[in-house]
Design brief:
The complex is a heterodimer of chains A (189) and B (170). With 189 residues, chain A is mainly α. Chain A contains eight helices and no strands. With 170 residues, chain B is mainly alpha-helical. Chain B is elongated. The chains are: A mainly alpha (189), B mainly alpha (170). At the A-B interface, helix 2, helix 3, helix 5, helix 6 and helix 8 of A face helix 1, helix 3 and helix 4 of B.
């Protein structure tokens, strides 16, 4: 995650569309990722990301810098995303995300079978995450992928701090329990 | 401490924790293979989630977003003090200055003293005291003619500024 410079934000506030294009290029991956984790559909996530970025452009003159810019931006994404969720029906999540290149796990294992097992476990965990309720998916995305603190997550989602911690703990417990059920006891992992 | 409690506490451990906090939890893990498996699973979950790549939008969003941005109205932040506010404050301050000076002049005049029943002619007082008193009254009157209206004007301006700032914040 990259926090934009004060100069870039000032240029955007003055209406510089080129500066805004730079800002969008910097932030689009993170905005889209959050939108996708929230909505679970690629097309809807793309629309949400675009709408949130445009909304940020419109409201940027009122950004006073009390919080980090990315916190403010993600708050926009979440608020707009929650409005959209009410209109969407729950559908099976697309698997497009799983066709992306996997990170190298070879350093974690020594032989091809272990590498294969490690990758399968990773994909299994990611699929389980995608099947969780959106409130857990978003917290997981912000905590693990964005590496946000509990306080920042609470600010972005507009939730009490303890609620964020509880959501995260419940999500992790559910994922770990499922993994144990699938892979067996202590020897299975 | 039972398994449910231990698992719940383990779920609260920060990401990347190798050894759980809490002696009771660690003792339980040493004795319970099921919870040990759970703890290992939790660590595998942490690693997998940290390694997950960002979802990518496919085609970049920049062209479509910037094309639409140029056509959208933007929220304008009004300055905290409008031109009308400044004109009103200046007029009020001026009125306070002029009115205050006029009132003090009337008060310092002999006609006011006469109306109040006070002796206009200080013939009962010693001459030097009367001169000094007259001089002091004149000086303080002149100073008061400036300071008191200025204070009143400043107070009115501050109140108006506070109201305008509050309105701008809203």
């Amino acid at each position: 995650m990259q926090e934009p410079s004060a100069q870039l934000l000032a240029r955007c506030c003055r209406g510089d569309t080129q500066a805004f294009a730079e800002l969008v290029a910097q932030q689009q991956a993170y905005v889209y990722n959050l939108a996708y984790r929230l909505l679970g559909e690629a097309e809807e996530a793309r629309d949400l990301a675009q709408d949130a970025l445009l909304r940020a452009w419109q409201m940027l003159p009122s950004f006073r810098g009390e919080a980090r810019f990315t916190t403010w931006l993600y708050r926009l994404v979440v608020n707009q995303g929650l409005n959209r969720l009410g209109r969407l029906r729950r559908r099976p999540l697309q698997v497009a995300i799983d066709t992306q290149p996997l990170p190298d796990v070879s350093q974690l294992a020594r032989d091809p079978q272990e590498i294969h097992d490690a990758r399968e476990r990773q994909e299994r965990i990611w699929r389980h995450v995608d099947s969780l309720p959106e409130k857990y998916r978003v917290v997981i995305a912000l905590y693990y992928q964005e590496e946000r603190s509990y306080e920042e997550i609470a600010q972005i989602l507009g939730l009490p701090l303890n609620t964020v911690k509880t959501h995260l703990a419940r999500a992790r417990q559910m994922l770990a329990s499922r993994l144990v059920d699938i892979e067996g006891g202590a020897d299975g992992l | 401490m039972d398994c449910d409690q231990v698992r719940w506490l383990l779920s609260y451990e920060p990401r990347g924790t190798i050894v759980p906090q809490g002696r009771a939890v660690r003792r339980h893990l040493e004795a319970c293979p099921s919870c040990r498996a759970f703890w290992q699973a939790l660590q595998a979950v942490d690693r997998a989630l940290a390694a997950r790549p960002l979802a990518e939008p496919g085609a970049p969003l920049t062209p479509s977003v910037t094309a639409r941005a140029g056509r959208l109205p933007r929220q304008e932040v009004a300055p905290p003090f409008s031109r009308a506010f400044w004109l009103f404050s200046a007029a009020l301050t001026l009125c306070a200055l002029v009115g205050g000076a006029w009132l003090l002049r009337c008060w310092a005049g002999s006609t006011v003293l006469g109306v109040a029943g006070l002796p206009a002619d200080p013939w009962l007082q010693p001459a030097w005291a009367a001169s000094a008193s007259e001089w002091l009254s004149l000086q303080s009157g002149q100073v008061a003619q400036v300071i008191l209206p200025a204070m009143a004007g400043a107070l009115v301006s501050l109140l108006g500024a506070a109201v305008g700032f509050r309105a701008a914040q809203r």
